[in-house]
Amino acid sequence: MSREFPLGSPRSRGNSDVVLPRQFVDALTAGVAVSISDANSGHPIVKLFDGSAFAGFSVSDIDQVTKTTGVIKTGEAVCLRVKEDAILVVGEGFAVDDTTGELVPAGTDGSTTINGEVADIGVNGLDGFGEVIHGCALVNLYGGAITLTTSTQDPQLASIKPSTAKK
């Protein structure tokens, strides 16, 4: 039996997860990174990640009629889509592709490093229609993206957890 988890949802719910309701524009699939499209409307609107204004990851409860979804910002063992041919390593940091919003290794060109670590690989995701998405990963999300300059870019910084980071 394969291991299947709802996309964008933490494996266990508890005090670690923050999931917020959001409207979205354009096409959106579950388990990918999203950007803030319009923060001035009083209720932030999100869209597929475009390399800026990281807002979290879309949850599998996407409603195409009302254009609403949950967006997870933090959580333990959150199931997300991995870009085809990307190789993630358990315990290491990760990034999201600036075009597809899917997971890639930290430091990949054209990606944004996320504050978190890979918890498990080789799992399957379930979208909102119950369709199985193969080759997903479980990640621990600590909140936000990590901004690195080209001169100091270090993919290992993506593995820093808030509890060990200097305040």
Can you give keywords for this protein?
single chain, 167 residues, mainly beta, Virus Head Decoration Protein, Chain: A, five-stranded mixed beta barrel, 0% helix, globular, disordered C terminus
Q: How many domains? A: 1
- Let me know the largest β-sheet: 5 strands, mixed, barrel
SSE order? EEEEEEEEEE
- Tell me the number of strands: 10
How would you sum up the global shape? Answer: globular
* Rg from Cα: 15 Å
Question: From the helix content, strand content and strand pairing, which structural class follows?
Answer: mainly beta
- The share of residues in helices is under 10%
Strand order of the largest sheet: 2-4-3-5-6
Q: Do you know the CATH topology?
A: Virus Head Decoration Protein, Chain: A
Number of helices: 0
Query: Which stretches are low in confidence, meaning pLDDT under 50 for 5 or more residues running?
Result: 158-167
Quick one: CATH class?
A: Mainly Beta
Mean pLDDT: 86
What does this structure look like?
It comes from Vibrio algivorus. This is DUF2190 family protein. By secondary structure, the chain is mainly beta. The protein has one domain (4-158): Beta Barrel (Virus Head Decoration Protein, Chain: A). It contains no helices and ten strands. It has strands spanning 4-6, 18-24, 33-38, 45-48, 54-58, 68-80, 94-97, 103-105, 111-126, 132-146. A hairpin with a 5-residue loop joins strand 7 (94-97) and strand 8 (103-105). The protein is globular, with a radius of gyration of 15 Å. It starts with a strand and ends in a 21-residue tail after the last strand.
